[in-house]
Amino acid sequence: MLEKMGEFFDARLEGYEEHQLTCIASAEAFYPFTAALLPRGTGVHILDLGCGTGLELGYYFALAPHAAVTGIDLAPGMLAALREKFPDRDLTLIRGSYFDVPFPEARFDAAVSVESLHHFTQAEKATLYRKLHRALKPGGYFILTDYFAPSEADEIFYRRELARLKAEQGITDGAFYHYDTPLTVAHETEALLEAGFASVELLGRWGDTCTLRAAK
Ligand SMILES: C[S@@+](CC[C@H](N)C(=O)[O-])C[C@H]1O[C@@H](n2cnc3c(N)ncnc32)[C@H](O)[C@@H]1O
Fold first, then answer.
1. 23-59 confidence digits (pLDDT tens)
2. 100-153 pLDDT, tens digit each
3. Is residue 34 within 8 Å of residue 110, measured between CB atoms?
4. Distance (Å, rounded) from C-alpha 28 to C-alpha 32?
């Protein structure tokens, strides 16, 4: 049965971090790798899309304890766990969808997203990435570490499967349901460039997980 996105993650809160770190190949490598790519200077402000319980932020705060981080997530339980983990850090947490939450203009030195955006289509991401581009300061950048489709055929297969499951379960409400529908790296790159990012580099690959850096 498909479950609504936020409810899916909150229902699995217990054991979530252990699952991420032990069941996703090379997670113990790509979380610190991602965190180390974020800026660390005085007064840096980072936006985290789909921050969850903040696995990437744990590694980041170890390097940049004074950074200000704004995290957006649909799941209230995940956000409560994140707040509890880092009571002394400069964290602003917003419960909502990053598609709907307005972003301030030119506010962030960098943005990050880990294992969250592989649930959405290229068309859905087009609007989000334009908003994200505007939210970054000049010289800012976006670090995306996520699960990518190994081929276009896989991308199409997962998207069709989601449509089939929704039809089978009579889901017509337009809400986000948890089902992995990753894009290929080529399509993700296209979405970022079309949104106005000047360049997109592939910085790391661990199986189907990749890290991209999109520069404003
Ligand atoms: C697999 S978890 C990753 C959390 C964290 N970044 C990590 O790597 O541990 C995916 C997170 O993305 C959140 N999420 C999914 N779609 C979202 C959306 N449209 N807006 C905000 N958060 C979303 C989920 O609620 C969940 O907490």
1. 998 999 999 999 999 999 889 999 999 999 999 999 9
2. 999 999 999 999 999 999 999 999 999 999 999 999 999 999 999 999 999 999
3. no
4. 7
Domains of the chain, with CATH numbers?
5-215 (3.40.50.150)
Global pTM value: 0.97
- Measured from the CB, is residue 71 less than 6 Å from ligand 1? no
In the reported structure, the alpha carbon of residue 100 is separated from the centroid of ligand 1 by a whole-number distance in angstroms of 14
**Which of these, 184, 178, 179, 177, lies nearest to 208 by C-alpha position?**
184
Q: Closest Cα to atom 10, ligand 1: which residue?
A: 116
Other CB atoms within 10 Å distance of the CB of residue 22: 10
Return the exposure string of 158-181: e unless at least 16 CB atoms fall within 10 Å of the residue's CB, then b: bbeebeeeeeeeebeeeebbbbeb
